[in-house]
Amino acid sequence: MKIVKLSDGGGLQLWVTPDGRKRWRLAYRFGGLQKVLAIGVYPEVGLKRARELRDEARRTLAKGQDPLQAKRNAKAERAESNANTFDAIAAKLADKKRRDGKSAATLKKFEWFLSFAHPALGAKAIHEISARDVLGVLKEVEARGVHETAHKLRAAIGDVFRYAIATARADNDPTIALRGALVSPTVTPRAAIVDPKAFGGLLRTIKDYQGAPETCAALELLALTFVRPGELRAAEWPEFDLDNALWKIPAGRMKMRKPHSVPLALRAVAILRQLKELAGRGKLVLRVAASAAGAL
């Protein structure tokens, strides 16, 4: 069986294939060549709409343009627009940060901040987003009273725009114009224990803590080494040189992605030797226990 072509005039045809499907096609000539433009599938595209699309194609021809090429150009523009939405570029930036070796915690925080921007900005083409659009998102967060989050969100959105500029997807960063537009967060410095007697009191309090031995050891090590909880929680025995009282944390676990050496006090070395006995052949200094993780 062959395709049956039913003509409606002006080059518009309804093609009926052997399987019974019906498709609208427009036959026309351009540059001396006979061409066919797919208009749609019947009945999703009815006769009225098919005639409208035929007339649009005819107007394109009247301008000296090929309707088929115009359709391909429009499709390419839509694909480019979809690839250049705020969400798409934010995802590419997150992937770059991942390849650059940023920690999982850093990436999670970056994506969490951008989740506030997703509803209003996510589907928009990056070059169409204005400072007013961004300000609307920031003010919505600020209205909740979380001023610091609003400021960090502005920085995260700015990161996306700067990446878009660097990859030729945008021409400017609207967050720059928003400096000073948000309420400054109230900063409350946390007092550090610098008095020897007070520090001794902290260590006595930790010693009196009635918890798992690893938890007590972890709390005391935090006080003696001044590292971040996550750095201690993921510490592995190959990082320690107990004979020389030195802990070398690899760059991959540091916030600034640089290796860090921590001198160990005699008490810290003693605690670590005790933990070594508990760990046996284990790789981690602190066995992953819910109590220890929660306390840290």
Q: Can you walk me through this structure?
A:
- The protein is α+β, with helices and mostly antiparallel strands.
- It has three domains: 4-78, Integrase, DNA-binding domain (Double Stranded RNA Binding Domain), CATH 3.30.160; 86-178, Orthogonal Bundle (DNA polymerase, domain 1), CATH 1.10.150.130; 196-295, Orthogonal Bundle (hpI Integrase, Chain A), CATH 1.10.443.
- Helix content is 49%, strand content 14%.
- It contains twelve helices and seven strands.
- The protein has a four-stranded antiparallel sheet, with helices on one face. A three-stranded antiparallel sheet has the order 5-6-7, with no helix packed on it.
- A hairpin with a 4-residue loop joins β5 (240-241) and β6 (246-249).
- α3 runs antiparallel to α4.
Short description, anyone?
The chain has helices spanning 47-62, 67-83, 86-99, 104-115, 118-121, 131-142, 147-166, 196-208, 213-225, 229-233, 266-279, 290-295, and strands spanning 4-9, 12-16, 22-30, 33-42, 240-241, 246-249, 260-263. It has 296 residues and is an alpha+beta fold.
Mean pLDDT: 87
- Could you name the CATH homologous superfamily of the largest domain? Intergrase catalytic core
What is the percentage of strand-forming residues? 5-15%
In this structure, how is the largest beta sheet organized? Answer: 4 strands, antiparallel
Number of helical segments with 4 or more residues: 12
Could you say which overall geometry the principal axes of the C-alpha atoms support?
A: elongated
Round the Cα radius of gyration to an integer and report it. Answer: 32 Å
Order of helices and strands: EEEEHHHHHHHHHHEEEHH
What name does CATH use for the topology of the largest domain?
A: hpI Integrase, Chain A
- Gap from first CA to last CA: 75 Å
Number of E-type strands: 7
